[in-house]
Amino acid sequence: MSGSDVMTRIAVGLEQGRDGGLMAHALTLPGCAGVGATPEAALAAFERSLMGWLRFLAAAGERVPPADAELEVAVDEWVESDAAVLSGETAVLFADDLRPLAQDEAEEGVRRIGDLRGRMLARVRRRRDVNLDVPAAPGVTVRQVLEELARAQWWTLSRLGASPMAGVTDHTLARLDTAAALVVDRMTSLTDDQRSLRLELDGEAWTARKVLRRLLWLEWTLGGMALTGLIAAEQAAETADPGHGGDT
Predict the structure, then answer these.
(1) Any residues with CB less than 8 A from the CB of 7 and at least 6 apart, and which?
(2) What are phi and psi of 78, to 5 degrees?
(3) What is the pLDDT of residues 97-132, one digit of tens each?
(4) What are the distances in angstroms from CA 221 to CA 17, 24, 129, 149?
(5) Residues 6+ apart with CB under 8 A from 178
(6) CA gap 116, 153 in Å, rounded
(7) Contact 213, 206 (CB under 8 A)
(8) What is the average pLDDT value for the chain, to the nearest integer?
(9) This prediction's pTM
(10) What is the CA radius of gyration of the chain?
């Protein structure tokens, strides 16, 4: 595969929050982002995340630039928002988000979310005694991260008219599965008008393209955090008891 038929220019939008922090969002490869206290730090974090994102896409069978390709990370937009970016918040609407979301783009985004979810759930389900209450990051467990992923994706979809997350079982994985089903149903059934609509809700501007970008980012960041915690816990268990690990 040559670099001529795949994307080597990665368009980025910088979000500068009320706390002065910055988040670099991929516009041409939605889902990938990086946070830092300065533009340089945010872009450096973005480039580290980008490498992982490209590895994931390659493993999922998508065309990506070859490993030795020279990538151009270009800042196309720089927008201020009211989010506390350094705390993980984001509220930005880029000019790029105003482009109508094509049906095939929505379907591709849903497939990517499904691939991300699948690699994480494969780790959850490979052992009958998997413990979701292991650390995912300092001060937070895998279960808490997965609960937040389900809640945040559901809330994001409510910007496009999805019902609030109510009446759903308290079981973490069931809530996660319900949110995933809603992502598929809502994002693949948008009308032409809905894919081009801009609306204001609770002081924040939304479009279908922004919703998809946010859904992918949530799956990449929170799902990835949960996956890292599960892998670390499994490795620790296998080190303590080598006969305890392995697939079921």
Answers:
(1) 28, 29, 65
(2) -140, 110
(3) 999 999 999 999 999 999 999 999 998 887 667 899
(4) 19, 14, 25, 9
(5) 150, 154, 165, 168, 169
(6) 14
(7) no
(8) 91
(9) 0.92
(10) 18
User: Are 143 and 222 within 8 A, CB to CB?
Assistant: no
User: Tokens representing 55?
Assistant: 């590895």
Give the separation between CA 192 and CA 202, rounded to whole angstroms: 24
- How far apart are the C-alpha atoms of 176 and 149, rounded to whole Å? 7
Could you report how far apart the first and last alpha carbons of the chain are, in Å?
37
Burial class, 3, CB count within 10 angstroms (exposed 0-12 / middle 13-18 / buried 19+): middle
**What does each C-alpha distance from 210 to 136, 218, 241 come to in angstroms?**
27, 12, 46
Domains of the chain: 3-91 (3.30.160), 97-244 (1.20.120)
- Amino acid identity, residue 118? G
Q: What is the dihedral of CA 44, 45, 47, 52, to 10 degrees?
A: 150
9 token code pair: 């220019």
3-state secondary structure of 128: coil
